[in-house]
Design brief:
The protein is α+β, with helices and mostly antiparallel strands. The protein is built from three helices and four strands; from the N terminus they run αβαβββα. The protein has a four-stranded antiparallel sheet with strand order 1-2-3-4, covered by helices on one side. β3 and β4 form a beta hairpin. The chain is elongated, with a radius of gyration of 18 Å.
Length: about 100
């Protein structure tokens, strides 16, 4: 097999999520959403955004415009160990048996 296990693992693609904010809503509020509805979030527009892997925060940064797209300028990133742990299945207590 060409390449080492380590080099093959480093080529695996994982979903990266940038969380703008979050909030709790009643089910009735969710069901009443229509195009054009505005959901107010718990973050100010100048606050940093969360960078997540596998629903676990590994860093943060600020929103930037890249051409016609949005991007994230990373201002904090956890150490390699925390990033690898975020890509795993999580705590054994969270595992489905």
């Amino acid at each position: 097999m060409p390449g080492t296990l380590e080099s093959r693992i480093l080529k695996i693609e994982v979903p990266v999520v940038v969380r703008v904010g979050e909030r709790q809503m009643r089910m009735g509020e969710v069901l009443s959403l229509v195009p054009g509805s505005i959901i107010e979030l718990n973050k100010r527009s100048e606050d940093e955004l969360d960078l997540l892997i596998n629903n676990k925060q590994i860093g943060s940064g600020t929103a930037v415009k890249v051409g016609e797209n949005f991007g994230l300028r990373v201002s904090y990133i956890g150490d390699v160990r925390s990033r690898i742990e975020a890509m795993g299945a999580g705590d054994e207590a969270d595992a489905v048996v």
